[in-house]
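Subject: Tubulin-specific chaperone cofactor E-like protein

B.,
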Amino acid sequence: RLNLPSILVLNSCGITHAGEENEIAAFCSHVSELDLSGNHLDSWQEISKIVSNVPQLQFLNLSSNPLYMSVLERECAGSFSGIRKLVLNNCKVSWETVHTLLMELPDLEELFLCLNDYDTIVSSPVCFRSLRLLHITDNNLQEWSDICKLGMMFPCLHTLILANNNILTIGDSGESLSRLFPNLRSISLHKSGLSSWKDIEKLNTLPKIEEVRLLGIPLVEPYTTEERRKLVVA
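Prediction pasted inline below.
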């Protein structure tokens, strides 16, 4: 029997379908990380056939698969329940699909939703306390009210990466920020549209904040790298 590695990379292999499920089960029973990015998988049902036969799977990368037209049913999403890290960059998946996945992934710790053309965040009536890291760069988010929705959905976030979104201002008071993001330790607002020191000062009200990344924003463009570092620290 072919002994496949526990970290299996099958990116850009032209994969369109799952194939024989008994063969997946035989060869992939010990696989814990699976990279299927850059393939032609356009059906959640096909992906479910793969995942349901990889019982040790904790990391799944589905980036750049054309999943935007596929509807994800709750029963199908249940096969993803053991995953802790999920990458859906450039899949153009809807927020409805994201919510369905979140409902069925009770141990999900890291979620990547970059390059999905989101111009708003659709909130969920349920909050998901397992998530620690959210990477949602290179979208079209502009309103801080949308970022607040992330705080309500993911109250235990440690790391929030918002780089390359045109966020112009932080609209909340410091008190509101600390309530929305009580556990946030790191935030990246690289290449956002922030142009006021008052907005930067608000980030200091986050009770557990340790790291703020602000490269490429209008506010610090006139300064040298060393001056930027000193200003942000101050």
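The chain has one domain: 7-233.

T.
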